[in-house]
Design brief:
This protein is mainly beta and 327 residues long. It contains 3 helices and 15 strands.
């Protein structure tokens, strides 16, 4: 009897190695501003100390915009950018209640010509012995031009030092030649919620500890194990669910349980799919540094457990968490 659902369990260890002269930072992403600009950005003491689990980034810039921390702008003397007034908006005299705004506009052009070298990709076997197969005519191999746009607006509201709410709204559009009969929701969406969560956090026993609930864009394994595809107009996959973490600086552990979000073109028509789930525990521990050939090498041991459930009728596409289309 065929099972009603498929389940994939992964238990493993990742051994990650990097070289450099600075503290271990999240993997960099081409989606970020130039390195010359981000290297000059201010960072807070907590950002330097608790650097794990932040996804692709450097300095105070991350693909996950909710990881950026502009609390240092309580001191107006540290302002150095034209947009700094939007990055820290005090809503009280002491600045404990504050708002950070962010936004993005991106235009992308994709052009494809003579796809598959205009060669047929399939053939029908001959019906008679010794006969020749019938080649399937190649289709849509001429010029294919796509114009992709995305616009994003985010807000991070801090209600004191231990509670915050974060949200990202995205508009995605794709037009051009031969876009096909169906454009996926992560490319065309009138208005979609990519991130929308509440979080409680604080320093408990010398470790940053937090609990996050709601819609989340996630990265595990230094952008190597689980990640959102940020090349699509709406980053995907994203998930609805819960995440708890405890971070000691050189070591961190996350526990999480999520449902996959499916983007649908419309105004806030995106819904989580209760039949497609991701859950698990992810740990990371920095090993002692080594200096081979005069280069400082950073190594970390990352044990993890991942669970994945996708019902066949749910359209889950079981590989969705590994940089695949999530709708």
């Amino acid at each position: 009897m065929r099972s009603r659902y498929c389940r994939t369990l992964a238990i493993g260890f990742a051994f990650l190695i990097g070289t450099g002269g600075r503290a271990a930072l999240a993997q960099e992403s081409p989606e970020l501003p130039s390195k010359a600009r981000t290297e000059g950005e201010s960072t807070t003491e907590d950002q330097i100390r608790f650097y794990k689990g932040k996804g692709p980034g450097r300095g105070n810039s991350y693909v996950e915009r909710y990881e950026e921390d502009y609390s240092y702008l309580r001191d107006p003397a540290r302002s150095s950018d034209f947009f700094d007034p939007f990055k820290f908006i005090p809503l009280g005299a002491d600045g404990e209640v504050n708002l950070t705004l962010n936004g993005e506009a991106r235009f992308r052009y994709d052009g494809t010509d003579h796809r598959n070298f205009a060669i047929a990709t399939a053939a029908t076997p001959a019906r008679t012995a010794g006969g020749r197969p019938t080649l399937t005519p190649a289709t849509e191999v001429s010029t294919n031009q796509l114009y992709k746009q995305r616009y994003a607006l985010g807000a991070d509201l801090h209600l004191g030092p231990n509670v915050r709410f974060y949200a990202d709204l995205y508009h995605g559009q794709q037009t051009g030649h031969r876009v096909g009969p169906t454009i996926p929701g992560n490319q065309r969406d009138a208005l979609g919620l990519v991130n929308g969560f509440g979080e409680v956090y604080g320093i408990l026993g010398d470790a940053k500890t937090g609990f996050r609930a709601g819609r989340q864009e996630i990265f595990f394994g230094n952008n190597l194990q689980v990640r959102a595809n940020v090349s699509t107009n709406l980053p995907s996959p994203v998930f609805d669910g819960f995440r708890a973490y405890r971070d000691w600086g050189p070591a961190r552990v996350d526990a999480f349980a999520y449902n996959l979000v499916q983007f649908v073109d419309g105004i806030l028509q995106d819904r989580d799919n209760p039949h497609v789930n991701l859950w698990g525990v992810y740990g990371s521990y920095d090993l002692p540094k080594a200096v081979p050939l005069g280069l400082e090498a950073r190594t970390s041991l990352e044990p993890f457990y991942l669970g994945w459930r996708a019902s066949p009728f749910a359209g889950g596409r079981g590989a969705g968490i590994y940089n695949d289309r999530a709708c």
